[in-house]
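Milestone M4 deliverable, item 7.
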Amino acid sequence: MKLSRIVITGIGLTAPNGNTLAEFRKNLLTGVSGIRTIDVRYMGRWPAGLCTFDPLKYQKKKEVRIGTRAGSISIYSAREALADSGIALDRRDRSRVGIYIGITEHGNVETENEVYNISLFNYDTKFWTHHHNPRTVANNPAGEVSLNLGATGPAYTIGAACAAGNMGLIHATQMLRLGEVDLAIAGGVSESPQTFGIFAGFKSQNALAIHADPTKASRPFDKARNGIVISEGGCLYTLERLEDALARGAKIYGEIGGYCVNSDATDYVLPNPERQAECVRQALRNARLTVEDIDIVNTHATSTPQGDIQECQALTSVFGHRQEPAAINNTKGFIGHCMGAAGALELAGNLPSFDDLIVHPTINVDELDPQCDIPGLVINQPRAVKRVDAILNNSFGMLGINSTLIIKRYLS
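Output delivered:
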């Protein structure tokens, strides 16, 4: 069976260092970090990445008050993606619009806040908000987008830990190919810095980054890296079947080339480089590409001591025999780890390379860890390249979920 070609026609995002693709990309090329120090309840001050978008651009004050931070991030990103795509929903069948949003976790922020609030009133639950249940259900971010847009097609979230951003795009591609929807709004979001629990959890694992300069706290591949910087963010795309995009004269950012999702099945937290390598190889087979066809590899590397090494082992096993190495980069030094939004945001940061043939760098690498010294790493300064026809995007998550997504330059 011949599969429909699926293309990206709109991008909306908010990241700790940018609220549009143009601003985000500019800051990636000029070394501008969005990480700063914030107060974390019960824990003091820690580096984190917060977004600065205006939620009132697309929501009323009451909607922001009743809804969630993840919902506001999702609504902003969805509206920006639609505006970028040139799609007017009032001219579409809204029952044929699907919303698929990857998340790492949802509901912790709202539950923590409510428990804290009632602690101020001797834990009297009469002070517990009646908005709690719709705020904490896992489908909340997609549901808030559906309400905001008046879109009546399928709207739900995909829980896939830190592989979730890729998963939103992969699932949207599948639903478009199945004919379930005609337009998909998909990607990933995160509100993680709003919860102290995730900070405490990573700290207990000795995996929470610390540095005197918060902008240097996230330092993938650097010998002195010491953990994750927790960040929020969102990136949603409009995806369409190619024939539909061409029929309306849409601009096309790229085409879904191939993908794979697999599981380590070995550990709750520690990644498995063999399974990661298998995921990359299967995505290449799915895309009918070879390792020589990939021009940019965006790594998942989170700046944890062991995790970065294991991903480098996986990439070496797949790409190590290439004659000319692919350009390999990472985005987390700029924005920290945006959890459910990570894969979607990091892909967006690389998509402009199809046009300008420049690869943004991995920053904060003062001394490269010898165990992460793999051919092709783009470190501290952007690199001009001769060709960008295929971008491979890795996102891996806890409980051993791996996702690889390949985007190709659109060619008619």
